[in-house]
Predict the structure.
Amino acid sequence: MTTHAFERRYDSLRAMVNRRLALLAMTGNSRDLREACRYILGGGGKRLRAILVILGCESAGGSARGALNAAAAVEVLHNFTLVHDDVMDNAVERRGRPTVHIRWDLNTALLAGDVLVGIGYRTLLQGGNHGRAAVARAYTEGLIEICEGQALDLSFERRNDVTLPEYFRMIGKKTGALLAAALEIGGLLGNAKPGTLAALKLFGRHLGIAFQLQDDLLDVVADRNDLGKPIGGDILERKKTYLLLRALQRTAGEDARFLRRLTGGRNDSPSLLPGKPPDSAAARRRLITTATAIYRRAGVLDDARSQIRRTTQLALRALAPLPPSRSKEMLAWLAEKLVSRSS
Amino acid sequence: MTTHAFERRYDSLRAMVNRRLALLAMTGNSRDLREACRYILGGGGKRLRAILVILGCESAGGSARGALNAAAAVEVLHNFTLVHDDVMDNAVERRGRPTVHIRWDLNTALLAGDVLVGIGYRTLLQGGNHGRAAVARAYTEGLIEICEGQALDLSFERRNDVTLPEYFRMIGKKTGALLAAALEIGGLLGNAKPGTLAALKLFGRHLGIAFQLQDDLLDVVADRNDLGKPIGGDILERKKTYLLLRALQRTAGEDARFLRRLTGGRNDSPSLLPGKPPDSAAARRRLITTATAIYRRAGVLDDARSQIRRTTQLALRALAPLPPSRSKEMLAWLAEKLVSRSS
């Protein structure tokens, strides 16, 4: 298939997932909760995880239609994590719109997230009983690992000695786990053999890591309108991204001192950087400009790009055991596409 | 069996559940998260929902051991709701200890709650595959209904026209749903026939409503040390309890005006009552004393007691279709015991 054909198929699968998600958002009889769920599930996005479920199922010999509920369920789980993560990260904007706790309030964000987990499981468990327990187990392990990844991420905020291996472990859980679970669930629904199942999971894990590295990179190099949120947010939030941790390894002198102050943790940082992002827009811009310039000088943007390439290669190689199919090709195409994306 | 024998058996089941919960709290590799989970699951409590799973299973002909994981899973789900509800309700104390967001912070409470849902499902899905999908569905519907109930409860805070039927619908979801799910899950694990299953669910729903009414009553009449939290909390928080809603029906003149100000909602109440509980301890005591005196004068404490008796009778009658067994007797004993409890 041509790139154009893959793109058309991706769009058609995404439209299918969006229609299913729109139906899910209608359930529940509390008006506030229903509106918040509709807002969350109607926020667009790539629907990547849902489409991975479908492609995983197809590449094991199953049908897209048979995986649609599970695909929507995985997307719902992903959206639940976004809502709660946005609360924990104090994020004000997501996909160009106010986050749920800003648009409504903390309680709505908390409860809408909670009910989305329930709606996710309900959707996952719809239909027959055959193999549903295994599917539900994979989904559950994805949920637990995401929480563990988020806990690590939060703990990094309070530490100034985070290492790159720790970072990779964290993003493996926070982003890799659900992509791996999505492909595993798809494989299970397609009655994949153990070798195929393992290959799909491994592909998902590597893809997730490459995807998160690309996310870290885009925070600095993307166009604000493409990204749907302000550029440099990770810098202001002092997130322990790949860029920051790698730059700490590759800088000395004044640049290193600046970055060390940046990693000082939210609460115990010395005078130059207050515990929160600077109040004035000018000071925020200055902070982002300085950090970005250091990243460039230290060559860590290029390091990120080659790390992304290497991890994508690992993902592609993981696909080898899969029998040849159009869906296998599309998974490979998708991996390439994701790491060249601009949003 | 004698009451004493039931009590001994309850204690022994509770110890069994507690041991299982202690094991669950060891999972996860983020230290903060693990400690918070251990704190939450180690907080004691009646373990009522877990024991209902076991008794439901036994009364359908199954074994306690075969229901233990599911029992622990239901208890974990209950504890998840407590942690998030305490955030939403700004509760500072639970079972005589600081709540999780007070002891740690909001993020820990949010994330520990989230991971508990995962741990709950993981525990529920352990063991064989037979009938697990049905069990997981019942668990999921319980989760969704609790969220809907909590959403209604929160929406009541912003309204001054809540009716008693609305209140009963809310507590049916917030408290009744999980008790019904607990008994249904037990029944499913014991391979209950449809009639037995329906009887168990109905018993749980009524029991949950009676239980919540008793909770509302205890907020006013309990001993502070028995309750494990301050007396009159519902009054300070202006919760739309049975007592308050019933008293609004049964009062006139000055008493009615006082209560209407109390129901004015958190944000739009007139001068006498600020949006939050009064700052001074003396003012808080005065508020509780006045409201309690009105409740007594209006006879709503007695109304609550007879409503609890009636609902308990409905629960007991629901048990009729169950085949005779020691566990059926114990369910009846438990229903009586719960509505005469002091904490």
